[in-house]
Each structure stands twice: as structure tokens, then as C-alpha cells.
Amino acid sequence: MASIKLTVTDFLSDNTKNDQAIPFRFTRLYVTLFLILAVLLTGGQLLTQWRLSTVQDELWIIRYTALQRHQSQQIVKQALQVTDSKEGSDFNQNLAELRHVFSAFERYHLESRQGQVTDHNVLIPNSDTIQRLYTNISPEFNAIQQSIGNLIKLQRPEDVSQPVVQASLKLLLANEKPFLEEIDGIVRQHTSELRNQLIRLESIELYLYIISIAVMLGIGFLIFRPATHRLKQTIAQLIEAERQASIANKELLYVNKSLNETRQKLFEATRLQYQQEIDEQKIRTSYLMAGQEDERKRLSRELHDGLGQMLTAIKLQIEGLEAGLRRASAEPGKTDLMAHSKSITNLKKLVTQTIQETRTISNNLMPSVLSDFGIVPAIKMLAENDRSETVDVTFESNLTADDPRLDKNVEIMLYRITQEALSNAVRHAHPSHIHIELIERQNYVHLLVTDDGRGFRPVSQRSKLPSPTKNGRAPSQGLHNMEERAKLLNGRLKISSVPGKGTKVQVSIPYKLQSAHYDAN
Fold it and tell me: CA–CA separation, 510 vs 505, rounded Å?
């Protein structure tokens, strides 16, 4: 501290008339201040981070040690289910679950005994007290290990009645409670040792805080106090210069005010033009979507009323021909007619399938249930059509048949987004379950489509744009279409997905419940 005082004295001793020396001296003062504070703060931060890293590793040890209590209870539960004669139909499943839980339990116990967690690269040697507690728990662990080792060797449900199996079960139950009590003691000892380390860390932090305060007080007394005196002289000169500059500033403020008013007017005009362009774009897109929906309805009517009726007529003619051939086949010497009758039967089946496919295409283009009954039955039918042996599709809604119908555009938008989300999930995510929710809350209708598939990374997180699929359509095109449909009705679309953890599509649309007119045809 004495050397610092001499340096400050040298800083402020002479050359008070040398104006060029003032900035240099103040720079040296501030550099000295920042260097001292930086050294103290950096040292304290490094020490704190090191200790916190050690504490975090010890928390992983405590967590995995405490997890053994839950795992031991799971082991006893699975062992009872395996040896229960009433659970014979689920014997193999229960036995596989017992093997899985015991494998994890055994690994966690052996690792925590060594003070390590391989899943997080943690290795902290246990204290002598904890090591002694693990030595005391060894008989119970060995007994559990022995009894489970006998149980997982079972091959048939009938083997559970063997004396050795019953003895192993009794041995497991007898050692469960002592093991839980002793593992609780280990967790308490771990917690106590961690608490002591945190107390020491708090003491170190307190000492660093006291030292930092002392250094700052010394710096304030030895640096800022002399600097304040010098600043007073400089400030007096600055005040006079400020007075002269304020006169010029008033004139500049007037000019600046005029410029700001002009800039604000220009900004407002630009904003109005931009808003007008956005509104025009929405109108164009709305017309485009409306035309698309009308075209789908027209094509649906043509497929249903035209092609469907013609194929039905063909089917009726073939049925009549088939009946005639049957009558002819009943006459002697007409054996060739039976082969022709079989061919015609196959042709009839093919025409029937064509009719069904035509109706399916018609329904996908514009389902009549949407126009006739509303969005809830339409989505329910969509869920039932997409349900299969590999994918379970469920649907729930708080909208009832007594509620007024939603607006026509809202219902069409919700149906198309649901249709696109289901198609994407089935084709790309390969889920086992898809859940659809349609909820009305606070003048908003919320649509949620959630699956447990393999998920994906959003385009914003990818290094490059996704390549198109075989049909020429980029994977993100469907998501873009859903987003554009939601924007047309001032809605919000949010897509959340994590690779391996599924995808959630959420749409929120402001709406008013009102009767809607639909073209039933």
C-alpha cells in the first residue's frame, strides 16, 4: 500500500499547468483501479467456480445414491409380481422388467461405492465414514444380489413354486428394510459432508468480500480523493466551456427538432405504405385460398356425381351380366361360362374398389361431414381414418354439438392444419400415438396435435436448407402452408420438436361463435 501511495503522490505532485498531463494521469489511476479489482474478482470467481463444480459432482453422487432406494423398492415390487401366480400371463414381461431394474440398481450401487458416476464422468473418492457405511451395507446388498440372481434364472411361471425361489423371495424381503435404512444413512452422511463444504465456501466468499471492500476503500482514499481535487479544477474550466456550448446547442436543438418532425412524417408514410402492402398481400392470399377451396368442392362434386355414378352403372351392368352367365352355366355343355363368370366377378370387385377410392378422394378434397356437421365430427372422422394397428390416434374437445358453429374459414383452416399435421406425423415421425385437442378458451380456439415420434430439428437450427423429398416437395413446405393458413385468420402457429422426443403443433385462432352457412353440395 505504501508503494501505491508514493505513486499517487508522484501522479499529483507537479505540472498542474500542463493540461496534456491530466488525461494521462487519470488514465493511469483508472488502469490501476481496474487491474486490482480484476485480479480480486477473477481470483474469487475462479475459486468459486472450482468449488461449485466439485459441489455439483457431489450432488450427482448423492442423487444416484438416493436413487438406489427407489430402485430397491422397484426390485421388490417386480419380484413379487414375478412370483405371483396370478401374474402368470405377464411372467416374461415382469421378469424382463426385473432384470432391467436390477441391472441399473447394481451398477449405481457399485459405482457410488467407488464414488463415481460414469454417466456424467464424475469421480470423487468417498470419505472414510462413507466407505465404512458402504462396508456395513454390503451383507444386505449381497443378499439382494443373491436373491435376485436366483429369480432372474426362472424360465417358466411354474418354477416360482420351487423352494429355492420362495427362499430367495423371503431373503429379498428380509433385507429390503435394513438396506433402505442404511442407504438413507449414506445419503445423510453425503449431505452432511456437502453442507460442511458449502459452509467453508461461504467463509471463503466472505473473506474475499471483506478483502475486496478493504481494497476498494484503500483505492477510494488513495486514488479518488486526490483525483477529486484535480477534477474540481478541470470541472470549473468545463463549466465555462459548457456555457458557451449551450448557446450553440439551443440553435442546434431547434434545427434537430425540425429534422425529427420531417423524419417522423417520412416514417409514418413508409409505415402506412408497408401496412397497405401487407393488407393487399393478405387479400390476394385469401382470394387464392378461397379459390382453392372452391375448386376442391367443385372437383369433389364432379368425382362424386359424375365418375362415381358412372362406375356404379358399370357395376350394375356387370352384375346383370354375371347373373345371365350363371343362368347359362346351369345348362349342360356350358362349362366355359364358369371361368368367364369368375373373371367378371373379379372385374366387379375392381370396379367396387374404384368407386370406394373415388369416394375417398372426394372426401379428402372436401369432406361432407365438415360442411354438414362442423369441425368436431370432421376431425373425429379424420382421427378414426388415420388410426391403425401401429398408430393410435385420439381426439378430445370441449366443443359440443349444442355450441354454435365456428366461422366457415376457421373450420376449413383447422381441418386443413389437422390434416397436414397428421400426414406429416404418420409419414415422417413414425409415432405410436397421436393426440389431437380442440379447446375453446377466452375467445380463442386452440388446436394441439402432439405425437411421440422421432421429432426433428427446426429449420432455424439446421446448417442448410433441407433437400426435397422424392415427390419434389421440401419437408418444410407443409409447415409453411400451415403457418400461412394461420396468418390469414390472425392466428399463431407454434411448432415444438426435439429429435427423439416427438413433435407438438399448436394453433391459436381468435374467433366468434356464430352460425355459419355451408354449401351442402
Answer: 17
